[in-house]
Amino acid sequence: MGTEADEAEPAEGVLSRAMRVLSCFTEEEPVLSAAQLAALTGTPTSTMHRLLAQLVGHGLVMRVPGHAYTIGARLWELGELSPLSLRLRETALPHMMRLYEATGENVHLAVLDAPTPETATALFVGRLTGQGSIPTLGRMGGRHPLHTTGVGKALLMTRDEAWLARFLSVPLERETTHSITSRDELRGDLDRARARGYATTREEMTLGNLSVAAPLGRVDGLPPAAVGVVAHLSRADERHLGPLVVQTAKDLTKALRAGTV
Question: Which pLDDT score is estimated for 133?
Answer without folding.
Answer: 57
